[in-house]
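(Protein data)
===
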Amino acid sequence: MTDPSPADARTVPAIERLTCVIPAGGVGSRLWPLSRANAPKFLLDLTGSGDSLLRATWDRLTPIAPADRIMVVTGSAHRESVEAQLPELLAENLVTESEPKDSSAAIGLAAAILELRDPDAILGSFAADHVIRGNVLFERAIRTAVQAADQGYIATIGIHPSHPATGFGYIESGAARGDLAPFDVYDVTSFVEKPDEQTARDYVEHGGFLWNAGMFIARATVLLDQMALAEPELVRALREIAAAWGTDQAASVRERLWHGLPKIAIDYTVAEPAAAAGKMVCVAAHFEWDDVGDFASVANLLTRGRGSDLAVLGDGAQVLSDASSGIVVSESDRLVALVGVEDVVVVDTADVLLVTSKAHAQDVKNLVTRMRVTGGGHLL
């Protein structure tokens, strides 16, 4: 059977027109000093499984899309590491950024490349640094989202909250959309930033709010056209870069245009405006999800939510504990001894020792910001 031409591409089932895009960027500054510029969190094993978060993301997607329809967007500095961890990744599906420009540029460039390959291509964006348990439920949610995307909507995945988390954004869901799929699809009323604890409790108790997992599924052209309403020059530049991709002009065109692109998250160029325009829907999913945003999240994952336990991460980590809880991450051969400390966070690397608490785990990012200003950048 020959490949379909663009003219009859819509006769191909929607799921077979899906390309999964893995944006692999960001340093993960709340996980410093474990996550650093040369070894960001997506390249690390934070679950003790033996696989990096990037590798786990790839393996989660292959039942949905074959290797030739999985694309990775990452920084030029991480190209070799990504290739080493993902030997199945095709060269033409590895897209590198000369400098980080946030998710609009990263996902938008992937969409522009896919749009040229197939005008009816469907893009699904799935972060490289999230942890998901329940792959069958994940696959079902993505297939449902693809149905909605094929009908011209931008779909996202909302996770039924298991507790009133203050570290996640939320999606306020609206009317059920049985016209798009038999179940689990709703209009998106609004996106809500990370709430305070009481607001999060209200969301969980009253219902109608889902965790925002930051996944987007849409036809590539629909996503770009929506982005162009907010940032027309950004989309024009991305389409120009994509037009040269794979040619001997690719590097020069990218270097000419990439530096001047705005740094802006796709939430602001696509998700929020699409929701306001009635073009955004969410699939309410039931799998376990965490964005592993800080060491408290890592501890929770490793202990499966048992807050009284002490989580230990690191090959050969030596930990002696008495009446203590929290997490120890060790990359050294030193013995870490804890006595009578609760919810502690200890990260022991070759050149940095971090000690904090789970309650202040989010504040590690503030240290990173101060170090950039005070000359400690060599440790980042």
User: Anything to note?
Assistant: The first strand starts at residue 18 and ends at 24.
